[in-house]
Amino acid sequence: MTLTLSRPELILKLIVEQYLLDGQPVSSKLLADNTQLAVSSATVRNTMMALEQQGLIRSPHTSAGRIPTSAGIRLFIDKMLQLQPLTSFWNNELQRKLVPQLPVSLLCQQAGQLLTNLTGFVAIVSAPKADGRIVRQIDLVRLAADRLLLVVIDEDGDILHRVLHCEMAIDNSTLSKVLCLLNAALGGGGQWQDGIERLGTIMRSETALCQQLLQKVLGQLSLDELQQHQPLVYGQHQLLLTPEYQQNSALQQVMQMLERPDGLMQLLDTVTHDDQPKLLLGKESGFVELSNVSVIVRRYQTQPKRLIALLGPRRMNYARLIPLVDACARQLNLNLNRRQASP
């Protein structure tokens, strides 16, 4: 599709595209030499002055070059950006890595890791588990006289397996008793969190080795429940490598926010009210920490609500990355629907 733009819009478009490409201020001479314009340098300079007065571009220092403001980039994205088709390599990677046979947790992990590997930016995925997680099976398997393997399977097919190291040898009667207590607390399709509470009550009434074993199991179950309800964040180290990060200390606040992303997830939750990709550009987020970054986010499931996001510096290749986030969300949605439809 060919865009019909006024001269100021075309000049803004060229400035934004060049800035997103190399991050350098764009001079009037560079623009005047562009064959799309066919106007004099004086005309370009006058138009750039008007764009600056409108708050769409600014001068980062005393040079003649200009860079776009957040408002300028927003206008470019809303009116002038032409999204590019997904590359065959990226599409093949999505098809190969995100398959419906994977348990939900592993599917979410694969999506986040793949997104950051393909882009070099930070990927954020909703917590794999929603409230009301159901335990389908729990078992203790002897590995040695003083070591046991704890195995717990939930309703999504995700498996928790942890080796429990004991201070003394465990006889068969103790192992059988502990396993019976675990099934009483967590078996029969009960909710994970409720089972943890029941197990805590049972543990307090036991003594000696049984109590020690139950305490170890309780610790592993509680830790897994906490981890499964935390957002997944991948590629924080990639942010450290960007030139923008090294030149702007404010971006270091983003790292602190990613360590405790609850506020960010609440923000993303409010903007993902449909199945279209959304873009938060700098200060639009309302968070000071995000004033120098952009976030592309897309909901991929409604019940429970799950989303996937890509966070990076404002100088992103939006034409390629918005379709990638959209395609990743679509693939996740397709796989989750297939899982639910399977017997």
Explain the overall architecture.
With 343 residues, this protein is an alpha+beta fold. It folds into three domains: 74 residues, Orthogonal Bundle (Arc Repressor Mutant, subunit A); 154 residues, GAF domain (Beta-Lactamase, 2-Layer Sandwich); 94 residues, Enolase-like, domain 1. Helices cover 50% and strands 17% of the residues. The chain contains 14 helices and ten strands. The strands form three sheets. Strands 7-3-10-9-8 form a five-stranded antiparallel sheet, with helices on both faces. Strands 4-5-6 form a three-stranded antiparallel sheet, covered by helices on one side. A two-stranded antiparallel ribbon has the order 1-2. Helix 1 crosses helix 3, helix 5 runs antiparallel to helix 6 and helix 7 packs across helix 9. The longest helix has 24 residues.
Short synopsis of the structure:
The chain is α+β, with helices and mostly antiparallel strands. The chain has helices at residues 7-22, 28-32, 41-53, 70-80, 88-97, 104-119, 172-186, 192-204, 208-228, 236-241, 243-247, 252-259, 262-271, 318-341, and strands spanning 57-58, 67-68, 122-125, 135-144, 147-154, 159-165, 232-234, 278-281, 293-301, 306-313.
